[in-house]
Design goal:
The protein is an alpha/beta fold. The protein is about 40% helix and about 20% strand. The protein contains 11 helices and 13 strands. The strands form 2 sheets. A 10-stranded mixed sheet has the order 6-5-4-7-8-9-10-11-12-13, sandwiched between helices. It has a 3-stranded mixed sheet with strand order 1-3-2, with helices on one face. Strand 4 and strand 5 form a beta hairpin. The longest helix is centred in the N-terminal third of the chain and has 60 residues. It is flat, with a radius of gyration of 62 Å. The N terminus is likely disordered.
Length: about 400
């Protein structure tokens, strides 16, 4: 009994009998519940049917009217009212059509341009690269002993000898063909007044060739006393003196004229004794400057006829033409007017005039003789006789 009292019975789960019974009762009640029968439908009256039909017809008519597209009345646009806008619109449409048509062509042209630009860029880059490499090579070889100058060659000219070049052309020790200072060498060579300029040729690997251009003689200047004349270069500097030897029966002026004509230059005589030429120095005397002003002021045609100038002073300049006529010019003013007067006298008194004076252009004068006694341009010292003077 003790054991039975100590053990308690295992609790059992509650059964759902009551629930089951309730559900069954509910089902029975539902089955037994009477179903309400629908009320008998009333027959519609004739009036209600006709009203319903009328409403339906109206609804369908309204719906049909809204579904059918109604014709729209076109409104005039602003462009049609304004002919300028209409024309502009047509042009714009044409341009759009052209752009559409030309679009493939524009694409091809754009592609070609891009291709050309790329090619040019590559070429430029290549050129710069080559130039950079060449510069590096030049800098490396510039001071290299590979091209050190060991020989200087020169061909002598008429007035410049090999010894002159050897004495003046100083090439610094260690100079190469790539770093030689040719400008300083040329400047040194110009110490010889016959040297007008110098050019250089590089003959690799070790030879420097010097080419001399001589100073061209512009005039032969004969001093007023003595038999010494000086060459005057085109650069306006004295070159060197020359002795004038007159033959028997020949004056010094005529002998100097022969030398000038052989050189193809102008003769200037009777210059002041105060002039002291120096080789390489500039000729700065006022009488010589007056001669240069006349030469610059005359026309080329008239200047080519002059074989000699006489310049005892800057206010007493005269010239001798190739036909032997002497022209007294005076000071270098009204040069073109004086030239016209001389040309007029030569034309009016052709073959007979021997002296023309245009010192004062407003009152010129001339002297003439018989044409058979007029001398040519190979002499400038003979005195004319049997002459008569006329004023114009």
């Amino acid at each position: 009994m003790a054991e039975s009292s100590s053990k308690r019975p295992t609790p059992r789960k509650p059964t759902r009998r009551k629930d089951a019974k309730a559900s069954k009762a509910t089902k029975k009640a539902a089955v037994k519940k009477p179903v309400a029968k629908p009320a008998a439908a009333k027959k519609p009256s004739i009036k209600s049917v006709s009203a319903k039909k009328t409403a339906t017809a109206r609804f369908e008519g309204a719906q049909g009217a809204s579904s059918k597209p109604q014709p729209s009345i076109p409104r005039p646009s602003a462009s049609s009212l304004n002919p300028r806008k209409a024309l502009a619109r047509k042009k714009a449409e044409k341009q759009d059509q052209k752009s559409v048509v030309n679009q493939p062509r524009e694409r091809r042209e754009r592609y070609q341009r891009e291709k050309t630009i790329n090619l040019v860029v590559r070429i430029v880059i290549g050129v710069f690269a080559l130039a950079f490499v060449a510069l590096i090579v030049y800098l490396v070889l510039r001071n290299s002993s590979t091209f050190e100058i060991t020989k200087v060659e020169f061909e002598p000219t008429e007035h410049v000898a090999v010894e002159d070049v050897e004495n003046l052309a100083h090439v610094s020790a260690g100079s190469t063909l790539l770093n030689v200072d040719t400008a300083s060498i040329e400047q040194s060579l110009k110490k010889n007044p016959w040297v007008a300029s110098a050019s250089f040729e590089l003959e690799f690997p070790n030879t420097l060739r010097v080419i001399i251009t001589e100073q061209k003689v512009d005039a032969l200047v004969l001093m007023s006393s003595g038999t010494v004349a000086w060459y005057l270069g085109e650069n306006g500097a004295w070159i060197e003196p020359v002795m004038v030897s007159a033959a028997e029966g020949q004056s010094v002026n005529d002998a100097a004229l022969a030398i000038a004509q052989s050189l193809g230059c102008l003769l200037i005589t009777d210059v002041p004794a105060t002039i002291e030429p120096e080789a390489g120095a500039a000729a700065t005397d006022s009488s010589l400057k007056a001669v240069q002003e006349f030469r610059a002021g005359f026309s080329d045609k008239f200047a080519s006829k002059i074989v000699c100038f006489r310049a005892p002073s800057d206010e007493n300049v005269s010239c001798v033409l190739d036909n032997g006529v002497e022209v007294s010019l005076g000071s270098p003013d009204d040069i073109s007017q004086k030239e016209k007067i001389v040309e007029s006298f030569l034309e009016q008194h052709q073959g007979s005039v021997v002296l023309i004076n245009v010192r004062i252009p407003s009152s010129p004068a001339f002297r003439e003789i018989d044409s058979e006694n007029v001398q040519g341009g190979d002499t400038i010292s003979g005195e004319q006789t049997d002459a008569k003077q006329s004023d114009s």
